Backbone:
């Protein structure tokens, strides 16, 4: 099968989406992607048509007309971006320039393919090969794409000429560039990554659609498979934000809180933060495509910021001195820069005075809890999960992984329900509940992760509470069950309606 390099990132973010797009051919119309295609086409025509090129405006008009998702309003952007693209066709004297170079190579049984917008091969051996890719998106986020192109180019078209590659992402919409240099080590690492991705695709292809795991995120809203995807139950549910009256009452006077209550609010805070992050991800993806929104007197969306200034400190120093001022009153070393200097081996001992220590509200990783969880995970025997597969994770480890996922904020399964179910399991484990109880809690956790908050989920949770617990532990578990119910039921009702 032919596998496009650009699709490898899709596979990494959601294998099921890769399957939908590359095997089933399901893709949603995407104006942003079409604008990129039109821009590339205009730039290529400028290069190849020579005197026959009708001018940027006319070429853009013709290319925009080929895409039903685009309108006249896109022409200005296409012209602006194409003009920036063609600047990359200027050839240094010691390079051969090739445009729109299609590269292919076999990885296992599959043909990996990609097209470099610009490939410059050095005339003299020893110089790095150069690759430029025009990026028309609004999201400046380099991927592994050009590292893979570099690996392919060095192993196909430019074997003799170069051993290293200099790659550039030209963000033509934003007017920014990102450059990276790849030597033998990075290229070997890239080769390993490519092989791992392709062999994972190969293995999944042998297993059929079910072997491609779903990984829901804010990007589901733009997935052509969302209607059939089991993770979204055939309908993408953006998010259910709990109405204010559903939130637990927070006492105005902190003195009324016990430590136990404070820790519960801490857990709740993490759940809210994870939810806020999810809302942000969805809005970022939406506004990326449809433009900024207005809400509550604010405008939200991607906006151009003032370009940041990079001062030439030598000149600044000189200008301050010229004014008869003391430059050291105005120029200081930040702690980040100091750390960089220390990394370079500059000894800064005795060059600073200590400021006042500050006490600030801080949320950071609880290393002790993570260590306890890891210890418990390694000590516990492997058990069998709901679908019969071997599961080595214990409940504390699951709780830790849920917290980690909530930190990423990009996975719907890492919702507050999942976290509280993990905490529930942890309470059971700490109370010395029998293995049968823990297995039920673990199965409930798996169902929560999969978003299956149905009858079996509740049965498992309720039946997992064993007899013989102390009243305190029982009360703790009941409180956790109530929290799970409060968080889960509104979402389920919304799904059902
Ligand atoms: S809807 Fe989401 S989880 Fe399902 S395939 Fe698409 S991206 Fe993946």
Residues:
């Amino acid at each position: 099968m032919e596998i496009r390099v650009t699709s490898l990132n899709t596979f990494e973010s959601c294998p099921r989406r890769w399957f939908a797009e590359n095997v089933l051919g399901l893709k949603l119309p995407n104006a942003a992607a079409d604008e990129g295609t039109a821009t590339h086409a205009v730039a290529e025509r400028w290069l190849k048509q020579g005197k026959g090129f009708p001018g940027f405006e006319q070429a853009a008009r013709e290319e925009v007309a080929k895409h039903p998702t685009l309108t006249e309003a896109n022409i200005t952007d296409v012209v602006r971006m194409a003009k920036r693209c063609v600047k990359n066709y200027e050839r240094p004297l010691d390079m051969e320039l090739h445009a729109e170079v299609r590269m292919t190579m076999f990885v296992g049984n599959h043909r990996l393919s990609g097209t470099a917008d610009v490939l410059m091969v050095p005339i003299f051996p020893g110089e790095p090969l150069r690759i430029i890719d025009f990026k028309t998106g609004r999201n400046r986020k380099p991927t592994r794409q050009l590292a893979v192109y570099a690996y392919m180019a060095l192993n196909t078209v430019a074997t003799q000429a170069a051993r290293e590659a200099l790659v550039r992402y030209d963000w033509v919409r934003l007017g920014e560039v990102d450059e990276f240099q790849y030597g033998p080590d990075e290229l070997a690492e890239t080769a390993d990554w490519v092989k791992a991705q392709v062999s994972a695709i190969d293995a999944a292809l042998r297993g059929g659609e079910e072997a491609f795991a779903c990984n829901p995120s804010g990007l589901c809203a733009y997935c052509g498979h969302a209607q059939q995807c089991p993770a979204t139950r055939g309908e993408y549910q953006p998010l259910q934000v709990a109405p204010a009256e559903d939130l637990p009452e927070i006492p105005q006077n902190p003195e009324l809180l016990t430590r136990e209550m404070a820790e519960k609010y801490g857990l709740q805070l993490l759940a809210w933060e994870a939810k806020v992050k999810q809302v942000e991800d969805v809005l970022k993806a939406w506004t990326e495509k449809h433009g900024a929104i207005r809400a509550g007197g604010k405008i939200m969306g991607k906006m151009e910021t003032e370009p940041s200034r990079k001062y030439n400190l030598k000149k600044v120093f000189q200008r301050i001195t010229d004014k008869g001022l003391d430059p050291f009153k105005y120029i200081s070393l930040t702690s980040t820069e100091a750390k960089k200097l220390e990394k370079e081996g500059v000894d800064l001992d005795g060059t600073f005075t200590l400021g006042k220590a500050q006490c600030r509200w801080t949320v950071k990783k609880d290393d002790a809890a993570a260590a306890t969880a890891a210890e418990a995970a390694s000590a516990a025997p492997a058990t069998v999960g709901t679908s019969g597969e071997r599961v080595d994770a214990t409940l504390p480890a699951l709780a830790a992984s849920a917290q980690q996922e909530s930190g990423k904020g990009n996975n719907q399964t890492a919702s507050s329900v999942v976290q509280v179910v993990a905490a529930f399991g942890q309470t059971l484990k700490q109370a010395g509940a029998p293995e049968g109880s823990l297995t039920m809690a673990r199965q409930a956790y798996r169902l929560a992760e999969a978003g299956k908050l149905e009858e079996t989920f509740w049965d498992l949770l309720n039946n997992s509470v064993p007899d013989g617990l102390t009243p305190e532990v029982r009360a703790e578990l009941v409180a956790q069950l109530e929290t799970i119910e409060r968080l889960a039921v509104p979402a389920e009702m919304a799904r059902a309606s």
Q: What stands out?
A: The pocket of iron/sulfur cluster is lined by residues 14, 16-17, 20, 214-216, 219-220, 223, 225-226, 229, 231-232 (CB under 6 Å). Strands lie at 2-4, 95-107, 110-122, 129-135, 165-171, 176-182, 293-295, 298-300, 383-384, 390-391. The radius of gyration is 28 Å.
